[in-house]
Amino acid sequence: MKTAERIFTRGGTKYRIRAEYGLRKIGDQAPYFSITGEIDRQARNGRWVEDCGGCIHGEIAKLFPKLRPLIRWHLCSKKGPMHYLANSKYWFGVGEYSERNLDYFKSTCVYGAVEGDTEFDLENADWPAVETWLVERFPGLLDKFQEELREFGVS
Fold this sequence. Notes:
Blueprint: E1 2-10, E2 13-24, E3 32-42, E4 48-54, H1 57-63, H2 68-71, E5 76-77, E6 80-81, H3 84-92, H4 102-108, H5 127-151
Antiparallel strand pairs: 1-2, 2-3, 3-4, 5-6
Helix pairs in contact: 3-4
């Protein structure tokens, strides 16, 4: 895992943010990419006190702009994004309990990572067409994932 750290001031209070990114492995599962962070606040006595942490991608993107491209790969393994087709299907609005939410859909399938993504008309496509598109773009998505991890020295 790699770590980036910086100190910043907001509203007169000093904070320290640490972003940790790289491949994680839990038990027998395949390694997956993770980018998370924690923010500590400096108390009046000078000690650092935990303020927040976890999947704080907004703060990481704001304070470490060079890491911004990695955020889209959070929870992606060398086998692809977590539950690539199932989660994409859910957010595309297929199923009894799901409603179409294209923003979450795009996040789930890492829309925009593969050349030609923006040429596919998501707004007017039905699920069978979307599923075919997802399957066809998958090899390119894996290639882009590996390429970007290498650019950041993550392997």
